[in-house]
Amino acid sequence: MIIAVTGTPGVGKTTVSKLLAEKLGYEYVNLRDYAIEKGIGEMKGDELEVEVDELAYNFEKDFAGKDVVVDGHLSHFLKADLVVVLRAHPKLVGERLEARGYPKEKVGENVEAELVDVILVEALEENENVIEVDTTGKTPEEVVEEVLELIKEGVKRRVGIVDWSEVYDEVVPYLRL
Ligand SMILES: Nc1ncnc2c1ncn2[C@@H]1O[C@H](COP(=O)(O)OP(=O)(O)OP(=O)(O)O)[C@@H](O)[C@H]1O
Prior knowledge:
The chain is α/β, with parallel strands linked by helices. It has a single domain (2-174), classed as P-loop containing nucleotide triphosphate hydrolases (Rossmann fold), CATH 3.40.50. Helices cover 46% and strands 17% of the residues. The protein contains 8 helices and 7 strands; from the N terminus they run E-H-E-H-E-E-H-E-E-H-H-H-E-H-H. The chain has helices spanning 13-24, 31-38, 52-63, 90-99, 104-115, 118-126, 140-153, 168-171, and strands at residues 2-6, 27-30, 42-44, 47-49, 68-71, 82-87, 130-134. The strands form 2 sheets. A 5-stranded parallel sheet has the order 2-5-1-6-7, sandwiched between helices. The chain has a two-stranded antiparallel sheet with strand order 3-4. A hairpin with a 2-residue loop joins strand 3 and strand 4 (47-49). Adenosine-5'-triphosphate (ATP) binds next to helix 1 and helix 7.
C-alpha cells in the first residue's frame, strides 16, 4: 500500500512518516530527495520546482504495488492508496518555520496556507481516501498511533476535524496583511 503523508511545511511530516514507516515495516521515501535523485524539477534559489505530472508518473513507475510511506507536501498528487493530511495549529507552523530561519514572507505564506486548509483541499481534489490528523498537543508517537488505529479500523476518509478560523486572532502576527 502507498501511504502519502502531506501537510504544510513544519507540521511534522518527516518525523511522523519515518515513524509510521518503521511501525508498518514499509519503505520510507522523501519525495523531495526522490525528485532530486531522479533529476525531476529545477532549483529556483533554494526551492525545488517540480512538474507534478512528471513526478507522479515516475513515482508510479518505481513504486506501484510496493509498501511505501511517502513524505512530502506534494505527495497527495501521487497515486496513493491513502493520503494522510497532517494538521497543526498555524501558530506552531509559524514558530517552527521561524526557528528554522525561514524568511518572514515564507513563514507567513505557510501559516496562511495552514489556516485556510490549502493542502487538505488539494488532497480532497486528488484522492477519495483522505485522513486528516491534528498533531497539535500530541507527540509524534501519538500521531502515528492514531493513524495506525484508523488504518486498522479501515477508515478511508476522515476530514473536517479542525477549524483554524477559531484561532485566527492568535496567528495575526504571522500573516501578510
Ligand atoms: N506531534 C508531532 N508530530 C510531528 N512532529 C512534531 C510533533 N510534535 C512536535 N514535532 C516536531 O515538529 C518538527 C516537525 O518537523 P518535520 O521536519 O518533521 O516537519 P515537516 O512537516 O516534514 O516539515 P518540512 O515539510 O518543512 O520538512 C520536528 O522538530 C518534530 O520533532
